[in-house]
Input
Amino acid sequence: RGLNGAAPLKRLLDALEPGGPQGKVQVGYTLTVQLLELYRPGAAGGWELDEKRLDAIMNLMKQARRPLVLYLSSSHFDSIGPLPAALAKDPANLMKAADGQPLKLSYFGYPIHPYTLIPDERIDVNRYRYQALREIARRVGELPEDVQRLIVAVTLVGEVHHLFPDFENGTGNFTQVRVTDYDPRSIAAFRTWLKDKYQTLARFNQATGFAYT
Output
């Protein structure tokens, strides 16, 4: 409908800080953008970015006129919508537990998709993530400078619920914890990273306190 939440957001923030943002401490907001939710089915098949959703995000920043943290999110909570549902059906897009199977998780009824930790852009979930990130960056770069200055920070940081098998019930379990991606490609990439960082097993053992042979 071409609408956004700028008006009620501004009313709330003006009630908390009458007269608008001023002084050393200013009241602002976090604008969470779920990257994979920005897509819609394309006319010729596949997926395309929804221009109306992107316009609404930029217009909210322009109209709210308040300091903000722009949270570009594509974590396991970016799981609502037709594209996340389609991506979750392909195991290549998901991290694997130690038994080689993708984790099936929820967070108090909210679906969680434990996406792969492999950054390879040829993997579908990454291709769509990076495409959305680049488009957001391009559009932010085209905003008026006074609106750009309202962005006090950009964060990509998420939580790590998807690294806990049986997250809802198992967060107090510290025995036999499996907290990473055991996909063979992730294991190979981790070994390469270790070799590049430490070069020899002796250096690795010295740095970590381990005694691997």
